[in-house]
Amino acid sequence: MSNDRRAAIKKLKSLYLSPKIDINDFRLRLDESFSSVFLPNNVELEEKSFGNVKCDVIVPEIYASNRVLLYVHGGSFVGGSRASYRPFVAALANVTSSRAFLPEFRLAPAHPFPASLEDIQQVFQSVFIETETALAMSTDSEDFTKVPEILIMADTSGASIALGLLYGLKGKYREAVRQVILFSPWLDFSEKNDMFTGKKVSDEIFTADSVRLASEHYTYQENWSNPLVSPLKATKEQLENFPPVFIQMGEKEIFYDDAEVFCDMLKNAGGTCKLDIWKKMPPMFQLADEDLYLAHLAVERIGQLITTKDHSNESVHEIQLELERS
């Protein structure tokens, strides 16, 4: 497999929202960088609408009848699309043996918070009801005894939206969420976050200034501490009976400290959280699978997590082969 770190970083820099680039150009750049005519693993692609929200429905050759994956894409709240995330979600659907739903939710700044959250809420409820109904109507006696199992996955800014969804779920809806998987999550836009105070911070892809710019497009300043915007501000009630969380990210991301705090919050509330930290990897390295062989291994780890049902609290530090060109 390829191991071209320089090419990977160049590609991943398309995720960086610069004040110097027009938002439409930013969206186009994301689609050009990450979309593909071909999808991996012989998955089938359909389109479905729930209300006004169009979704890709990605179906692998082998999937569990009661398991579905709902993916909330990143893109700094203003970009990202079904086209740009379709190959990545197809790979996730395959390794988890799940039908995957990838919504085209409304984007800021034309549609600020809570528009995207409302769209994801509508898709979640519709997917749950559809899956529950299909299982109840199945002639397979084994299906009849099953309940929906929903995997929630999200990256970067999408993590804020996905966790906002989860904070509002109650009863059977929350119980149906088997696992939450977050890639390089953005968790705190509040003004007291150390990332936005003092000297400027950055990693290989993102800067604190670019994250702040995204939050300004998404919602007004007084709302940055709202738990539905900044998940680290969650109340005790919002974290009760929370589904298991798995966070996969690079070693030196500017979001690492917030991820550790979030894991501690969940554990203190009686939940489980696992950090999967990949040495020498940039944020969202999983999207650069053409250039980094470790991206494939990271996706495979997600499949192992779902198939082995490993929900322990122990943090994971992947033992990796040294890259020849680190």
* Number of helices in the DSSP assignment: 11
Please report the total strand number as a whole number.
9
- The largest sheet has its strands arranged as 1-2-4-3-5-6-7-8-9
Helix percent reads 25-40%
Order of helices and strands: HHEEEHEHHEHHEHHEHEHE
**Main β sheet profile:** 9 strands, mixed
- What's the alpha carbon Rg, rounded to whole Å? 19 Å
Shape: globular
Unreliable residue runs? 310-326
What does this entry look like structurally?
- The protein has 326 residues and is of the alpha/beta class.
- Helix content is 38%, strand content 16%.
- It contains 11 helices and 9 strands.
- It has helices at residues 5-12, 23-34, 82-96, 115-137, 141-144, 157-168, 171-175, 208-218, 236-239, 256-268, 293-308, and strands spanning 44-50, 53-59, 67-72, 99-103, 149-155, 177-183, 245-250, 273-278, 316-317.
- The protein has a 9-stranded mixed sheet with strand order 1-2-4-3-5-6-7-8-9, sandwiched between helices.
- Strand 8, helix 11 (293-308) and strand 9 form a beta-alpha-beta unit.
- It is globular.
- 46% of the residues are buried.
- Residues 310-326 have low confidence and may be disordered.
